[in-house]
Specification:
By secondary structure, the chain is an alpha+beta fold. About 35% of the residues lie in helices and about 25% in strands. It has 2 domains: about 5-120, no CATH class; about 125-300, Sandwich (Immunoglobulin-like), CATH 2.60.40. The chain has a 7-stranded antiparallel beta sheet with strand order 1-2-3-4-5-9-8, covered by helices on one side. The protein has a 4-stranded antiparallel beta sheet with strand order 7-6-10-11, with no helix packed on it. The chain is globular and about 75 Å long. The termini are far apart. About 40% of the residues are buried.
């Protein structure tokens, strides 16, 4: 018969096998994603209680936890289910002895996994319809895309995300218009959490596979907008691939925090306004939120 002590040790050993894997592929099953979210939440809660890790490891673990949460939501888990998982994770972590061999073994495996993770320079974060590409390479010659998503809207193309020489950089959009038009106004629009109770997902617009188009993931009202802070011609390395010319715009720093706080199933919109003969012409490009928060955290992990 297994003793309560050995049973607890077995549960901790099983838990770390998932918690130690920081970079994970997209998951098809909600159960698998929930298991990973639980495991990483346990270790994150144990870290808060027992001060197990250096800041870099804590950041990496939180990025992995956020990614697992997003995968669970996209696989069909509800917010209520995730709240329950987090409560169970905290209960397990807070009931453990910080000085026990089980906790130390779990922490050691997380630290070991971090050694490899911290040396990664590139990661891809697939979503429902688009992928965030993360790049931690240092480029002394000028800014490059740190975390980017490429979007086609009509005949036009846009690269959206974080760009800079090092670290996280600024929130940017680089746009090439097929007809050479130049917008007189540009703004970033997203759901306002202060005026809504959760993500807007218009399932009436879903296709036969149940997938909601990005335009159906942004509410028609109760939104907030961020105007452009700066605008300039885009360099070759920042322009959409193959574009002969493009404009580069920068959004306020607070828009980064706001975007990272959204549900990964949501979308945000970059709206371009052009002067028309009789009325303004508006073109809209939709960006999947996806694992933006996890990708941002990856950029902020110190290399070891």
């Amino acid at each position: 018969m297994t003793s309560p002590r050995s049973g607890a040790a077995h549960r901790w050993r099983g838990l770390v096998l998932g918690a130690a894997v920081f970079a994970m592929p997209s998951l098809a099953a909600a159960g698998s994603a929930l298991d990973l979210f639980y495991e990483r939440s346990v270790m994150a809660a144990a870290d808060r209680r027992c001060d197990l890790f250096e800041p870099g490891v804590t950041t990496a673990l939180d990025a992995a936890r956020v990614q697992a949460r997003g995968a669970a939501l996209r696989a069909g888990a509800t917010d209520e289910t995730l709240v329950g998982v987090e409560q169970r994770a905290r209960s397990k972590a807070y009931g453990a002895d910080c000085r026990s061999a089980d906790v130390e073994t779990a922490a050691s495996r997380v630290r070991s996994a971090f050694e490899g993770y911290s040396h990664l320079t590139r990661l891809s974060y697939p979503g429902d319809t688009a992928t965030w590409e993360a790049n931690r390479m240092v480029n002394p010659d000028g800014p490059i895309w740190r975390l980017s998503q490429t979007i086609r809207f009509g005949w036009d193309r846009m690269v959206f995300g974080l760009g800079g020489k090092v670290g996280q950089g600024a929130l940017l959009a680089s746009v090439s218009f097929a007809d050479g038009a130049s917008p007189y106004a540009i703004r970033l629009v997203m759901r306002d959490p202060a005026r809504t109770s959760g993500p807007y997902l218009d399932r009436r617009r879903a296709n036969g596979d149940g997938r909601i188009p990005l335009a159906g993931r942004l509410p028609p009202s109760a939104t907030r907008a961020f105007s452009v802070e700066a605008r300039s011609p885009a360099s070759t390395r920042m322009a959409p691939a193959g574009a002969k010319s493009a404009i580069l715009v920068r959004f306020p720093a607070q828009a980064i925090t706001a975007l990272a706080a959204l549900d990964p199933r949501e979308a945000v919109m970059v709206e371009f306004v052009f002067a028309g003969r009789d009325r303004d012409d508006i073109r809209r490009a939709y960006v999947e939120v996806g694992d933006f928060a996890a990708g941002r955290a990856f950029l902020n992990v110190d290399e070891r």
